């Protein structure tokens, strides 16, 4: 349940902490974390300590890194050790990755040899790899086991595992041989062998595969969990859907930032220093500003055409904006299609042909409406109206084809397609639209 904010504030003001505790433990752990995050650290720590230990651990896992640091700085080693011991292994690794060296050292000192070995192994995986996301808390079975033995095994260890809905079958060397779902176990005969009911066609990722590869498999197959193996095909861990959802959000945010011509950042907007935000934006803006000088060069080159018909200059913003918008529409759809796997590199021809046909329809409609508007309503000379409208048709056609093609070329060149988005395409299309405009103007008005 959600907390009543007015009631909470009143209880907090009256220092009715016992009642506050009762209200909090009725809530979901993530909602408790959100509430405690909003109040001062002294009160938050007191309420956090009043929570039942199992709830407190879950709440701690939902705190952002800065809040976790504050809590760790204020609690005793014994309290910290309990939290670390009870956290899911993947949450503990996430915690250690965010903590300063002195905190990590403190946690490692209180861990046994096997735990330290595992922790160090996980911390050595590349930051955005499948290995850095996985947890070791999975259920593994042997193919010689019966269904009854497997269910008994799950009942014995299930509460300490991240998920029990998919169980993984391994040999004596931990090599992945297959998987079996809990549903399959429940409906099968007790004396059946696991090897007779397991699925040997297992989809997995390697520990060093990029996290985006894992995310694509989750989206494609609708997995709840995905096994992770090492280079010798030994089961090392699993990635669960809750962890991959965070990756999908992160990758989507990164794409949006690149599409807006900014360097990607994982920090929250309101918590990021203004100089950091400026640094992320200024490089691309500078590149785009310098590249925009090409449009100035084109205008200077055709200065004589503009001087002979000054009215032409008034239509330049409309032509450049329409071209940029047309290209951005196409690039946005293609970039998203590439991200979702709906469009592949081999579909480049189909995309170009589709965008070309769309551009003809859109260009002719916009050109016709523009001609009627400026010729009949604005009483512009027929030749100028024709020049502007023809330029508009050609610009839209070229913009849409370029907008559809550039993201695919970027993907082919192993560059993030999101880079080929609005600002960059607009800069390219601006230069092309001006070249087309002045070429058509020179042909129609001068000859």
UniProtKB/TrEMBL annotation:
Gene3D superfamilies: CBS-domain, MgtE N-terminal domain-like, SLC41 divalent cation transporters, integral membrane domain. SUPFAM superfamilies: CBS-domain pair (SSF54631), MgtE membrane domain-like (SSF161093), MgtE N-terminal domain-like (SSF158791). It is found in: Cell membrane; Membrane. InterPro entries: CBS_dom (IPR000644), CBS_dom_sf (IPR046342), Mg_transptr_MgtE_intracell_dom (IPR006668), MgtE_N_sf (IPR038076), MgtE_transporter (IPR006669), SLC41_membr_dom (IPR006667), SLC41_membr_dom_sf (IPR036739). GO terms for cellular component: plasma membrane. PROSITE patterns: CBS. Residues 198-254 form the CBS domain. Its main location: membrane. One of its GO terms (molecular function) is magnesium ion transmembrane transporter activity. Keywords: CBS domain, Cell membrane, Magnesium, Membrane, Metal-binding, Transmembrane, Transmembrane helix, Transport. Signal peptide: none annotated. The chain crosses the membrane at residues 282-299, 356-376, 382-406, 418-440. It is a multi-pass membrane protein. Coiled coil: none annotated. Homodimer. PANTHER family: MAGNESIUM TRANSPORTER MGTE. Acts as a magnesium transporter. Belongs to the SLC41A transporter family. NCBIfam families: mgtE. This is Magnesium transporter MgtE. It comes from Anaerosalibacter bizertensis.
